[in-house]
Write a structure and sequence with these properties.
The chain is built from one helix and ten strands. With about 140 residues, the protein is of the alpha+beta class. It has a domain of about 90 residues: Rieske Iron-sulfur Protein, CATH 2.102.10.10. The strands form three sheets. The protein has a four-stranded antiparallel β-sheet, with no helix packed on it. The relative contact order is 0.17. One of its GO terms (molecular function) is metal ion binding. Its cofactor is [2Fe-2S] cluster. Keywords: 2Fe-2S, Disulfide bond, Iron, Iron-sulfur, Metal-binding.
C-alpha cells in the first residue's frame, strides 16, 4: 500500500502518545509551586474550651484539629493560639516541643509567640486567636 502524503505529515503512534503525555503533565507541574491564598477558618465562639494546659509542652505546641487551631506555650504559663492551617498551601501544622510550630508538608516553621514565619516557603504569619486560661483549661475569649 502506498501513501500519497508527504512523510513530514505522518505522525507515529508513539509521537502522538508522547505529545499527549507531555501536554497532560504541564498543568500538574505548573500548579505544584503556586501558592493559593489560605483563609483561616472562623475562630470558635468565646469560652470554647480548647485543651488542658498540661497538654501543651513548655516551648512547644499542641494542635486541636477539630477546631483548626494550634495552642502554644512559649514560656511557662504563657499560652497563645493560632490557626493551624499553614499559610503556604493550607496543610495543618503539627504539634511539637522543639520551640517552633512546624508544617511538615513543605517545611515552613512559625513562631510560638506571635505566629510569624521563621522559615519558608510560607510568607504570611498564622492568624492569632485570643485565649485565656480558666481552671487549667485554655479557652477562647472575645478579645
Amino acid at each position: 500500500m502506498s501513501n500519497n502524503r508527504p512523510s513530514s505529515h505522518l505522525l507515529s503512534r508513539r509521537s502522538v502518545l508522547a505529545s499527549g503525555a507531555t501536554a497532560a503533565a504541564v498543568p500538574m507541574v505548573a500548579g505544584c509551586g503556586e501558592d493559593e491564598p489560605v483563609t483561616a477558618p472562623e475562630p470558635p465562639k468565646a469560652d470554647t474550651e480548647l485543651l488542658k494546659t498540661s497538654d501543651v509542652p513548655v516551648g512547644g505546641c499542641a494542635v486541636v484539629s477539630a477546631l483548626k487551631l494550634v495552642v502554644t506555650q512559649p514560656s511557662e504559663g504563657q499560652f497563645k493560639a493560632f490557626s493551624s492551617l499553614c499559610t503556604h498551601q493550607g496543610c495543618e501544622v503539627s504539634s511539637s516541643s522543639d520551640g517552633e510550630i512546624p508544617c511538615t508538608c513543605h517545611g515552613s516553621r512559625f513562631s510560638l509567640t506571635d505566629g510569624s514565619v521563621i522559615k519558608g516557603p510560607a510568607e504570611v504569619p498564622l492568624e492569632e486567636v485570643a485565649v485565656e486560661v480558666k481552671d487549667g483549661v485554655v479557652t477562647t475569649t472575645n478579645a
